[in-house]
Amino acid sequence: MADELVLIVEDNEKNRKLVRDVLRYNKYRTVETASAEEGLRLALEQRPDLILMDFQLPGMNGIEALARLRARPETRAIPVIAVTASAMTEEHQQIVAAGFDAMQTKPIRVREFMQVVRDTLARRKGRPE
Ligand code: MN
């Protein structure tokens, strides 16, 4: 448990800081970026154990970024949690259909968020790489 590397892809600086602080407090290592393009590069380079992907990003959005991660053997098995500011059902359906491993709605509630992180990492353990 913990010590795992989490890649945070989030363009909102306050949200990025909150997620980073919560994860580090819980002994996870983090790497972060504000863009999906840079996120894809970091995913390949650092092979994180988990990716938190903001749904709405400048340029490439979270769904496109997920598709690109899943298209490459090196990053295909990394679990990805979608983080969305929207409570809109339509967007939630898009997220589920896209194949994200889990979803978190902003504003982040710390206990619930950490539970989703732990559950998603735990599920990955049983999965072949
Ligand atoms: Mn955003």
Q: What do these coordinates show?
A:
By secondary structure, the chain is of the alpha/beta class. The protein has a single domain (5-124), classed as Response regulator (Rossmann fold, 3-Layer(aba) Sandwich), CATH 3.40.50. Helix content is 47%, strand content 19%. The protein has helices at 13-25, 36-46, 62-71, 89-98, 110-125; strands at 5-9, 29-33, 50-54, 80-84, 102-105. Strands 2-1-3-4-5 form a five-stranded parallel sheet, with helices on both faces. The mean pLDDT is 92. The structure holds manganese (II) ion. Manganese (II) ion binds at residues 11-12, 54, 56-57.
Could you name the key traits of this structure?
129 residues; alpha/beta; Rossmann fold; five-stranded parallel β-sheet; 5 helices; 5 strands; globular; binds manganese (II) ion
Indicate the mean pLDDT: 92
Main beta sheet, described?
5 strands, parallel
Main CATH class: Alpha Beta
Estimate the strand proportion.
15-25%
Return the CATH topology. Answer: Rossmann fold
Write down the overall geometry.
Answer: globular
Number of domains: 1
Instruction: Indicate the structural class.
Output: alpha/beta
Helix percent band: 40-55%
Across the major sheet, the strand order is: 2-1-3-4-5
Rg measurement, Å: 13 Å
The succession of helices and strands, N to C, reads: EHEHEHEHEH
Unreliable residue runs: none
The number of E-state strands comes to: 5
Assign the CATH architecture: 3-Layer(aba) Sandwich
